[in-house]
Every structure is written in structure tokens, then in C-alpha cells.
Amino acid sequence: MSQQRLAYPRGDRAALVFGSAAIFLLLQLLQLAEVTGYRALIPADSANPGKCIYRGDLLQAGVNNGIPPCQRLTCNEDGSILIEGCGKLRIEKCNRGERIHQSKPFPECCLLRYKCKQPNGAPYYIERDAAEGA
User: Residues in domain Single (predicted)?
Assistant: First the structure.
């Protein structure tokens, strides 16, 4: 039985290794993070130059607030979109947290209230801002 080797062009193999390493590093950093606020840049859509298209909707130029779930989108002149949002915090012995001000714009909508348990089982509440780090 002969073994068959797959041949990859040199650039493809390097891109695959680099991409895998970048994804692994990102996952490790996410596990260490207590706060899950985020920022990302969505590249411009080449089919719609100079326009910001988000989930099929045309955004106005500049800042767009009130995008569920608690996000702020900034439409740039080139059509790229900066997306900022808050996630949820992981707090030991607490529930997933409920948004206190759901109707407020980002980042005010990121304030969360958690119901937690003391060692004796009695409940207590804490508030945290999930936009920190965004």
C-alpha cells in the first residue's frame, strides 16, 4: 500500500498554518477574558462601493445606535462598518445576567444585573458593565 502526500503550494500552507495559529490564540485570549465587550471592522462590500450594508439594511453615514442586541455601528466613508457591542460576563455562582437598560443606546444598554448565590444559598445581586474592554 503506497502513501499519498498532498501537495500544497508554499503560500497556501503558510497561510493555513498562520490562520490556524491566529484562531487558536484568539480562542485562548477569549477564555482568559472576563469581559466580553467587542469591536470589529466589517470590510466594505465591493458590490456596493461607498455604502454600508449590514444584514441586508443600508446604514446611514456615521454612528448608528440602537442596533440589537445592544450595539453601535459606525458607517465609514469607504463603506466599512465598525461594530461595537457588549456581551455577557461570566461570574461564578451567578446567573447569565439581565440587561437593566435595554432601550438605551450603546454603551448604556450594557449594564447587567446578576442574581448570585452565597455559600449558604441565600441570593444577592450585583451590577456590572459588560461594555468594558469594547
Answer: 52-116
Query: What pLDDT shows up at residue 29?
Result: 43
Is residue 73 within 8 A of residue 57, CB to CB? The reply is no
Rounded CA-CA distance 119/122 in Å is: 7
For the stretch 75-132, pLDDT in tens is: 999 999 999 999 778 888 999 889 999 899 999 999 999 999 999 999 999 999 888 7
DSSP letters along 115-128, please? EEE-TTS-EEEEEE
Give the C-alpha separation, 77 to 61, whole Å: 7
What is the number of other CB atoms lying within 10 angstroms of the CB of residue 82? 15
Cα distance between the two ends of the chain? 55
| Residue indicated by cell numbers 432601550 | 103
Q: How many CB atoms lie within 10 A of CB 87?
A: 20
* Contact assessment for residue 110 and residue 86, using Cβ atoms and an 8 Å cutoff: yes
Could you report the per-residue pLDDT of 45-70, keeping only the tens digit for each?
Answer: 999 999 999 999 999 999 998 778 88
| 123 in Cβ contact with 94 (< 8 Å) | no
